[in-house]
Amino acid sequence: MDPQMILRVLRRDAWAIIAASIIGALVAYVASSWLPPTYESRTTLLVGQSLDSGALDYTGILAAQLQAQTYASLAVGRAALQETIDALDLDVSVDELATRVRAQSAAESRFVEIVAADGAPEGAAAIANSLAAQVIARTEGGQSDETLALIRRELDATAAGIAEAQAALAELAAAPPAAERTDQILALDARIVTLRSIRATLLVEASQAGAEPISIVSTALPNDSPISPRPVVNAILAAIIGAGAALIGSLARTGLRGTASAH
User: Fold this and answer.
1) Which contiguous run of DSSP H or E holds residue 114?
2) How far apart are CA 15 and CA 22, in angstroms?
3) What digits encode the pLDDT tens for the residues 159-190?
């Protein structure tokens, strides 16, 4: 498309493009302002001993990291969600509440972050703190049946990963030697060693009478800034879309006029 034609259209229809942009922004801002706000709060748990306890070792840290993933799953499990609904007397189903919460633990981290969303800041904080309390309650006095079931699933997944890596290694070993195959063999050997180490830790974890201690390091507090809707952001996007649509329409009309004139 001719840049000069675009400039001519911009000069000719500048007011129409600006008007479309303003109208789009106003409509988006007003519409967003009418939507009910959603607030988020988060609480953070620490699995294992704190850094200043002096009781940390590599095995304990690795076990705590593995358990952090398990506790993140427990935090948003149906049992914990139902207990939270009962404790807070929420008028929602387990499935509805599940869409408003999430729990995550980064790889090789002992921290578990629980995030809850609600139409009120206090409600979001209460849900996040209740889920954290449910996790702590379920881990006191030893591994719960739910925790052990998750560990068994992780053991099965690790065993399957080892078997898959060993099968791939056997195929590569039977093939003719090649530089790229050597790199693949080394990578598979390293993966098998890592998976076996993880499996050994899981077996120790499953056999322990008590779980790694878990504590709250950051309590969820009401956050008065909603995560949605965002009227200003929506208005800016609508203004850009409105201006773009108006410009495209003007260019299309100009092109049609040029085609009609040529005929």
Assistant:
1) strand 111-118
2) 10
3) 888 999 888 888 888 777 666 677 888 888 88
Say if CB 126 and CB 236 are below 8 A apart: no
CA trace torsion 219, 222, 225, 227 (10° rounding): 70
Cα maximum dimension of the chain:
89
- The one-letter code for the residue type at 210 is G
Q: Which residue is it, tokens 């899981």?
A: 202
Planar angle of CA 12, 16, 20, nearest 5 degrees: 150
Q: What is the pLDDT of residues 139-152, one digit of tens each?
A: 765 555 666 677 77
**Two tokens at 153?**
């699933």
The beta strands (E) that lie in the chain are given as 39-47, 101-104, 111-118, 214-218
C-alpha torsion sign, points 55, 60, 62, 68 = negative
One of 3.30.1890.10, 3.30.465.10, 3.30.70.380, 3.10.450.50 is the CATH number of 37-143+209-227, namely 3.30.1890.10
With a CB cutoff of 8 Å and minimum separation 6, the contacts of 29 are 231, 232, 234, 235, 238
